[in-house]
Write a structure and sequence with these properties.
Layout lengths: L1 E4 L7 E8 L2 E8 L3 E6 L4 E10 L4 E3 L2 E2 L5 E3 L5 E6 L3 E9 H10 L7 H4 L3 E3 L2 H20 L7 H18 L14 H14 L8 H7 L4 H12 L3 H19 L7 H7 L5 H12 L3 H11 L1
Antiparallel strand pairs: 1-4, 2-3, 3-10, 4-9, 5-10, 6-7, 6-9, 8-11
Helix pairs in contact: 3-4, 5-7, 8-11
Length: 296
C-alpha cells in the first residue's frame, strides 16, 4: 500500500494490529491529511469504520463517508482512501469463507458479490455505536490482557460474537439511500489524478489540465478542494514533492544532485523547493538523503 501525505508538517501515526484466530482488527491514526491506495488482503472480507476525525473528512473511492453511519471498504479489490485532516479508523479483515459461512447461517443471502461490490453501506447510528463498543473492549483487552485473547475458546467466542453482530447491523433491504453512488465529479477527479501522474516531470497548468479532460478549471478546483482540501495545482505539487522524496530515498548520496533531481519534477528554484520540501516533510532534502545513506 502507498500512502501520500497531503497536509504539511511532521507525519505522526499510531498503529495497533490484533489477530484473534483468523480475524484481524487494525487501528490506524494519523495527524495529517493522507491518501492511501493499494491492494487489499486476498481471500478476506474487509470492513472499515471511522473511529474519529480531526475536523476533516474521509472519502473512500471518492465517496464522502459519514463517520456515525457508514461501513466501507468491503469491495475486496483495493484500497482508495482520502483523509483530509487526519483522524483514526479501524479495519476488520475476516476470511471470506468464514464471513460467508456466518452469513448463510443467518440466512443473509443478500450479502452476495453484488452487495459487496458496492463498497459502502449506511447503518443506523445505533448500529455503528454497538460495533464500536465491542471493538473498544477488544482493543482494551489487547493492550491489558493480550495473552487472554489468544486462548482458543476466546478466539471462537469472538468470531461467534462479532461476525453476527456486524452482519445483523447491515440493513436487510438496502434501498438507494443505503448505498453511496458514484458522481460525475468523482470520475472527473480520478481522471485528473491519472493525467497529473502522467505529467509529474512535465509542465502542466490548470487550464491545460481542464482542456485535456474537456472540463472547466472551476469544476476541477471545486472537486479537488472538496475531496483533498487542496487546489488542483497544490495537489500536483504535493505529488511531485513525494516523487522527489521517493527518488532521494532510492539514491546514493554521493551520486545524487538534489538540484538536478528537483528540476526533473518541475522545481526550478532551489530555495523555493527546499522550503516547500521542509514544510511538507519536516526535514531538508539533504537530510532525507543523509538518513537514507545511514540506513543503507
Amino acid at each position: 500500500m502507498e500512502i501520500i501525505q497531503l497536509s504539511p508538517g511532521s507525519l505522526q501515526a499510531s498503529f495497533l494490529s490484533i489477530q484473534i484466530g483468523e480475524i484481524y482488527f487494525i487501528y490506524v491514526q494519523t495527524n495529517q491529511g493522507t491518501q492511501a491506495f493499494g491492494d487489499k488482503l486476498k481471500e478476506y472480507r474487509s470492513f472499515s469504520i471511522v473511529w474519529f476525525d480531526s475536523k476533516g473528512e474521509f472519502h473512500s473511492y471518492r465517496h464522502l463517508i459519514k463517520p456515525k453511519r457508514t461501513i466501507f471498504g468491503f469491495n475486496g479489490t483495493e484500497t482508495d482512501l482520502v483523509v483530509s485532516q487526519g483522524g483514526a479508523m479501524v479495519e476488520i479483515h475476516i476470511p471470506s469463507k468464514t464471513f460467508d459461512t456466518y452469513a448463510d447461517k443467518l440466512q443473509r443471502h443478500d450479502l452476495d458479490d453484488s452487495f459487496l461490490s458496492k463498497n459502502h453501506v449506511n447503518l443506523l447510528p445505533t448500529g455503528i455505536k454497538e460495533i464500536k463498543d465491542y471493538l473498544k473492549q477488544l482493543f482494551w483487552l489487547a493492550v491489558h490482557k493480550p495473552n487472554w485473547l489468544q486462548k482458543p475458546h476466546i478466539q471462537e467466542l469472538v468470531a461467534d460474537d462479532f461476525i453476527p453482530l456486524l452482519i445483523s447491523k447491515i440493513p436487510i433491504k438496502c434501498n438507494s439511500k443505503c448505498f453511496l453512488k458514484p458522481s460525475q465529479r468523482a470520475k472527473l477527479i480520478a481522471q485528473a489524478e491519472t493525467e497529473m501522474l502522467a505529467h509529474l516531470d512535465q509542465p502542466l497548468t490548470l487550464k491545460q489540465l481542464a482542456q485535456n479532460l474537456e472540463s472547466s478549471s472551476s469544476a476541477l478546483s471545486y472537486g479537488f478542494q472538496d475531496l483533498f482540501g487542496l487546489s488542483p495545482m497544490r495537489y500536483l505539487k504535493v505529488r511531485r514533492l513525494h516523487a522527489v522524496r521517493q527518488h532521494l530515498k532510492a539514491r546514493d548520496a554521493e551520486s545524487c544532485t538534489i538540484t538536478t533531481l528537483a528540476s526533473q519534477f518541475g522545481f526550478y528554484h532551489r530555495s523555493h523547493f527546499t522550503q516547500d520540501y521542509k514544510t511538507m516533510f519536516g526535514e531538508l532534502p539533504s537530510e532525507t538523503l543523509r538518513n537514507t545513506a545511514k540506513v543503507m
